[in-house]
Amino acid sequence: IGMGLTGFGVFFLFFGMILFFDKALLAIGNVLFVAGLSFVIGLERTFRFFFQKHKMKATGFFLGGVLIVLIGWPLIGMVLEIYGFFLLFRGFFPVVIGFIRRVPVLGYLLNLPGISSPT
Fold first, then answer.
1. pLDDT in tens, 32-85
2. Is the dihedral angle over the CA atoms 102, 108, 109, 112 positive or is it negative?
3. How far apart are the two ends of the chain, measured CA to CA in Å?
4. Neighbour-count burial of 117, counting CB atoms closer than 10 A to its CB (0-12 exposed, 13-18 middle, 19+ buried)
5. pLDDT-derived band of residue 117, with 50, 70 and 90 as boundaries?
6. Dihedral pair phi/psi, residue 89, rounded to 5°
7. What are the counts of helices (DSSP H) followed by strands (DSSP E) for the chain?
8. 31: burial class by Cβ within 10 Å (0-12, 13-18, 19+)?
9. pTM for the full model?
10. Cβ-based neighbours of 93, under 8 Å, separated by 6 or more
11. What are phi and psi of 3, to 5 degrees?
12. What are the transmembrane regions (predicted)?
């Protein structure tokens, strides 16, 4: 259920941005994404993840962006939300890149000389 909610949330967010920041689709996507994340890792761990002392700035931007989208200013809200998302999940990006490097076609593209970083 959690993965489905998160997947639909990402779909609605993406579709809402394609349709010129449609307020309703972005609001539904935000609610589904946060609900799906809560179902996947649990309410307590979600709360602990968002409200760690060193992540308060990122949480403020992310949840502030969600609130601003729900109020009705989708462009400003999405900018804040994307910034907060990158601050919140920046520790996961190296893990994701490492996983993608093992996927056959995408790994080849990421290991090209201009893209790969020297290790």
1. 999 999 999 999 999 999 999 999 999 999 999 999 999 999 999 999 999 999
2. positive
3. 39
4. exposed
5. low
6. -105, 15
7. 7, 0
8. middle
9. 0.79
10. none
11. -65, -40
12. 5-21, 27-47, 59-76
Element (H, E) at 12: helix 2-18
Give residue 17's identity as a one-letter amino acid code. Answer: M
Backbone phi and psi for residue 112, each to the nearest 5 degrees, phi listed first: -65, 150
Give the whole-angstrom CA distance, residue 106 versus residue 80. Answer: 29
- pLDDT for the residue numbered 110: 82
Residue 25: the pLDDT is 94
Angle formed by the axes of helices 23-41 and 56-71, to 10°?
140
- Per the CB < 8 A criterion, the answer to whether 17 and 43 are in contact is no
**How many residues would you count in the chain?**
119
Per-residue tokens: 38: 């809560």
Instruction: Count Cβ atoms below 10 Å from residue 77 Cβ, excluding itself.
Output: 23
Cα Rg of the chain (Å, integer): 16
